[in-house]
Design goal:
single chain, about 200 residues, about 45% helix, elongated, (apollo) hypothetical protein
Length: about 200
């Protein structure tokens, strides 16, 4: 996804050493040896005087600021980085398009599984376990009063209008009519009060 292979595991160790490992202590000893080896290499570097260091630093700064001193290899690196950046941008666009396709597919399947309900239809709403006692009914019969926002329904019972909106997947439509819109009182109640 990001244009490079994932770095997983102990990449700094040789594969032969990894095969021979059997305990954590062996791994720790190898890691300590590698660290000591790196420290020794840093100490062995040839001694450079302060004047030479400052000359090298100014030379490096000059290379970065003066465009005429950019070498062919630097230009190739810049071109390769630009190409890689464009490739990553293209991959991100494709990923975004794929996510949108998948979301549209899920919405289409949801609309087939849960078709839109009409005002006046009787529906069954499941009462959450925290809002009912063990012996109480598991469901409550309600009627659809209106479609408020996209996909959200206002429901009412013979005890009053439920104080929250429900999505289409939170209720099941009934074929029979038990409650009509005209017998719903105009005050709000919670589903716990209805239960």
């Amino acid at each position: 996804m990001f244009g490079c292979k994932a770095n997983v595991g102990l990449n700094s160790l040789q594969k032969d050493a990894l095969v021979e490992l059997s305990t954590e202590e062996a791994l720790e000893s190898i890691l300590i040896e590698d660290e000591n080896h790196l420290n020794e290499e840093m100490e062995i570097e040839p001694n450079i005087t302060d004047a030479e260091k400052s000359d090298k630093e100014t030379e490096n700064q000059g290379n970065t600021t003066d465009p005429s001193k950019i070498t062919q290899s630097d230009q190739e690196i810049v071109i390769a980085l630009d190409k890689r950046k464009q490739d990553i941008g293209n991959i991100r666009k494709l990923v975004g398009q794929s996510l949108k396709k998948q979301a549209d597919k899920m919405l289409a399947l949801s609309s087939v599984k849960y078709p839109a309900a009409n005002t006046g239809d009787n529906v069954v709403v499941k009462i959450p376990d925290v809002d009912r006692a063990k012996a109480d009914d598991r469901n409550i019969m309600v009627v659809i009063i209106s479609l408020e926002t996209e996909g959200m329904y206002k429901l009412g019972t013979k005890h009053g209008i439920l104080n929250q909106l429900y999505a289409r997947n939170q209720f099941t439509v009934c074929k029979e009519t038990f409650v009509t819109v005209d017998i719903v009182p105009q005050h709000e109640v919670t589903i716990r009060e209805c239960a």
